[in-house]
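for the recovery benchmark. tokens below, seq after
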């Protein structure tokens, strides 16, 4: 299912987990005043806007995202050194080779269908010595979210509707080999252990819906989604504590140099 205005708008209110993950990545990436930065999968653009503050008036930041709904929200933040366009990680052909100092990919790589191509494109548009920064869920760590999704989607009648383009969380070994094959000369990967907290099951599912552009339900048709959501809610309810739900997550945080 395509993204909607409602999901895109909702994400801007609940993306503090992704925002903080982006700040962690930025601490390692060394973005400086005057740099040219490409934010791939920029969503509604709030982190992209923060990047534009970091590079200042002598730098430039471009954000791209396939969701027109998210780019429409981001465009409200555009300034002379900050622009946004609809686009995908796998096709950066509107950007010249060796034109950016930094490519920033936060909480996005698992949604990219052709990850090897996306990393080759990132390497192509980076100047020699330029850096890609990637932060996202680790395939070496199974979160409660993925366990619940897999469990509910394997039940009848949902299993009749397989997900068309499921997220792919890379294991560290897989990520290392993709980076090495994409043309980067140096890489550094650390694990960022975080906790996603939500006040209750509904708040957790809302966060998952808006973060995934509605893909929490895989290929399930629209009319069956409320029933699937109710079944997911039952599973999340089992994890509620006195102060809400706390889901442990592990993110792989990569800085690779061309
Ligand atoms: C969880 S959001 C992250 C947004 C933003 N980077 C942040 O940290 O808040 C994931 C984003 O990836 C985008 N996305 C999905 N497939 C993509 C692709 N092939 N290329 C680039 N972005 C993609 C989605 O539209 C969505 O905005």
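predicted aa per position
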């Amino acid at each position: 299912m395509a993204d909607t205005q409602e999901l895109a708008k909702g994400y801007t209110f609940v993306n503090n987990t992704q925002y903080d993950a982006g700040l962690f990545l930025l601490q390692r990436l060394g973005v400086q005043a005057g740099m040219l930065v490409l934010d791939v999968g920029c969503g509604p653009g709030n982190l992209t806007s923060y990047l534009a503050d970091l590079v200042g008036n002598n730098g430039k930041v471009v954000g791209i995202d396939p969701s027109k709904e998210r780019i429409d929200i981001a465009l409200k933040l555009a300034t002379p050194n900050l622009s946004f366009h609809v686009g995908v990680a796998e096709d950066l052909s509107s950007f010249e080779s060796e034109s950016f100092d930094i490519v920033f990919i936060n909480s996005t790589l698992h949604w990219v269908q052709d990850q090897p191509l996306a990393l080759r494109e990132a390497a192509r548009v980076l100047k020699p010595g330029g850096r890609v920064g990637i932060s996202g869920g680790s395939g070496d760590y199974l979160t409660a979210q993925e366990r619940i999704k897999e469990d509910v989607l394997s039940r009848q009648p949902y299993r009749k509707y397989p997900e068309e383009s499921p997220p792919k969380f890379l294991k560290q070994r897989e990520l290392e080999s993709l980076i090495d094959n994409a043309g980067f000369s140096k890489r550094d990967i650390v694990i960022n252990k975080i906790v996603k907290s939500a006040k209750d099951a509904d708040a957790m599912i809302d966060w998952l819906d808006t973060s995934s552009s509605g893909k929490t339900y895989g290929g399930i048709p629209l009319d069956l989604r409320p029933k699937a959501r109710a079944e997911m809610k039952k599973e999340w309810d089992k994890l509620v504590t006195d102060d809400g739900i706390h889901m442990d997550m592990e993110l792989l945080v990569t800085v690779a140099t061309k």
